[in-house]
Each structure stands twice: as C-alpha cells, then as structure tokens.
C-alpha cells in the first residue's frame, strides 16, 4: 500500500498554505477560501459518481480512478484548510477496525 503518497502530499499541501496564490493551484484555492474549496469537493463528488456509473456501462474504470483521485485530493485540501492532516482520518479508520458497521449503527440508535 502507498501510504507514503499521502504523507508526501500532506507535506506539500502544508507548504502551499503559505505559498503565493499565483504560484500554485493549492495556494490559489486557499486564497479563494473555504467556500471555493467546498465547491470543488462537491464538483469532484458528482464527477466521481458519474464516472462510476459510466464504468459500469463501458467496463473501463480509468475515468473513475482519475476522478476519485481528484476527489481525494480536494478533500485533502479541504482538511488542510481546516488544519486537519490525513493522519486524523487514517486514525479514525483504524479505530473502526473490527467494528462492524451494523453493530456501530445499532449502538448509535440505542
Ligand atoms: N494531486 C494534485 C491534483 N489533482 C488535481 N489537481 C488539479 O485540480 C484541478 C481540478 O479541477 P478541474 O478538473 O475542475 O479542472 P479546472 O477546470 O482546471 O478547475 P477550475 O478552474 O474549475 O477550478 C486541476 O487544475 C488539476 O490539475 C491537482 N493539483 C495538485 N495536486 C498535487 O498538489 C501538489 C501541489 O500543487 P500546486 O499547488 O499546484 O503546486 C502537486 O504537486 C500535486 O502533488
């Protein structure tokens, strides 16, 4: 598994928070603010859903992989804007290991 990719990207995203807006796409998103970043997350979510439907029809998953990468990237920018690193999400997923989604939901609704 390429967990090094997330760590390297997170370090770049952190560096871009103080970079000039005209020097970097990520810095330009931070300069435009949270609403613009959330707009991109929404756009990429929809493009990912459409790519998943298209993959079923065509049997070609390449667009779905591309769009999911765009979605993950923009959610990482969103988290970075709010001073949350990917390790917080990885820790939360790790916490859920061996916790059945059905059990978790049943306990939540008690
Ligand atoms: N992984 C990515 C990455 N994935 C997607 N994108 C950009 O995200 C944008 C996706 O937006 P769209 O597909 O909607 O394209 P668009 O029409 O150009 O976007 P808008 O003008 O509508 O905002 C494109 O500009 C992509 O190039 C990314 N830009 C940067 N990274 C990583 O972030 C690092 C820092 O990037 P810079 O800040 O640009 O140096 C890079 O080295 C990469 O590792």
Automatic annotation (TrEMBL):
Main location: cytoplasm
Single biological process term from Gene Ontology: L-histidine biosynthetic process
InterPro entries for the chain: HisE, PRib-ATP_PPHydrolase-like
Keywords, comma-separated and alphabetical: Amino-acid biosynthesis, ATP-binding, Cytoplasm, Histidine biosynthesis, Hydrolase, Nucleotide-binding
GO terms assigned for molecular function: ATP binding; phosphoribosyl-ATP diphosphatase activity
EC primary class: hydrolase
Pfam family, one: PRA-PH
EC id: 3.6.1.31
Keyword flag Cytoplasm: yes
Annotated GO CC locations: cytoplasm
Localization: Cytoplasm
Pathway: Amino-acid biosynthesis; L-histidine biosynthesis; L-histidine from 5-phospho-alpha-D-ribose 1-diphosphate: step 2/9
Keyword Cytoplasm: yes
NCBIfam families: histidine_hisI, PRK00400.1-3
Similarity comment: family membership: Belongs to the PRA-PH family.
Annotated PANTHER family: HISTIDINE BIOSYNTHESIS BIFUNCTIONAL PROTEIN, HISTIDINE BIOSYNTHESIS BIFUNCTIONAL PROTEIN HISIE
Protein name from the UniProt record: Phosphoribosyl-ATP pyrophosphatase
Taxonomic lineage: Bacteria, Pseudomonadati, Pseudomonadota, Gammaproteobacteria, Oceanospirillales
Gene transcribed to yield this protein: hisE
């Amino acid at each position: 598994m390429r967990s090094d990719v997330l760590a390297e990207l997170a370090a770049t995203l952190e560096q871009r928070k103080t970079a000039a807006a005209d020097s970097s796409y990520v810095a330009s998103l931070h300069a435009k603010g949270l609403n613009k970043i959330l707009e991109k997350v929404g756009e990429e979510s929809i493009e990912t859903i459409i790519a998943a439907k298209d993959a079923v029809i065509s049997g070609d998953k390449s667009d779905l992989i591309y769009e999911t990468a765009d979605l993950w990237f923009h959610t990482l920018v969103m988290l970075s804007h709010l001073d949350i690193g990917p390790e917080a999400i990885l820790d939360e997923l790790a916490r859920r290991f061996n916790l059945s989604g059905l059990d978790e939901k049943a306990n939540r609704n008690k």
